[in-house]
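Good morning N.,

You mentioned wanting to compare the apo and holo forms, so I went ahead and generated the holo version with spermidine. This is what I fed in:
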Amino acid sequence: MKESDHLKADSWIDEYQSGQRFGLQGKVLINKESKIQKITVVKTEKYGNGLLIDNCWMTTEYDEKYYHECLVQPAMCSAKSIDKVLIIGGGDGGSARECLRHINVKHLDLVEIDSEVVKLSQKYLPCLGGKAWIDPRLNLKCEDGIEWIKQAKSNSYDVIIIDGSDPKGPAEGLFNKSFYTDCKRILKHDGVFAAQTESPAAFRQLHIDIVKTIRSVFKYADPLYGCVPIYPSGYWSWTFGAKDKRRYLRPINRRVNNLPKDFEIWSPKWQNGAFNAIPNCIEQALKE
Ligand code: SPD
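and this is what came out, ligand included:
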């Protein structure tokens, strides 16, 4: 079977990764080249509608909470304040929705490089962004996130969330030391940084390298582990950073109490376990 066969209607839609494939049965609704990348929207029986960029799974209606809750809530529940929040990437709206569940957020900048991702997500995966798209606290900018971070004022954000795609193509610049150094500069002293940091199983060395790079910039940084069923191997990670202490480990009680209790995956108990569930091989490699 050729790689291009996965775009046939009523077929298998697969992400190919060096001798493995990760897929769902369904059909392709949209397959287009934007100015930035290839965007594919699919309809699947088991996972609802899904979004791929450059043939890699970004999200599906069924499993998006496994990803967005775990990227966003540990940061939003532990930063000292959450007045001003920045998301880089996240054009499907899932991370914005999670941030705006917090009534104390006053302003959210969502900086997505590709307006097509926003348009297609609003049309085909509307439940991801939900009411976030019409929330007056949301400032949506379709611009380059790397430039945005370079231009932003020092110490200006309480929470910074990097919800990019994989470290190749347009998102490559979201994974290097100079980018993380700019993120640290614009993060407040008692703020929290969060980023998706790939799979400890499917991309072990890449994951280790990313965590080490974040640790070389932030005084405190730790990975957290969970499951995103459609991603390669299903085993995924997010890494959190802070300047003053490992504040991302512990959610602030009064903030948690203000949240609805309808999370699919995230809870303070889950978060505690997920930070502790570091695979031994990764823990050892991070010491080297
Ligand atoms: N390999 C998948 C990595 C994707 C990370 N971001 C997905 C965007 C969801 N908002």
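The chain is about 30% helix and 30% strand.

Happy to go through it together on a call whenever suits you.

Best,
F.
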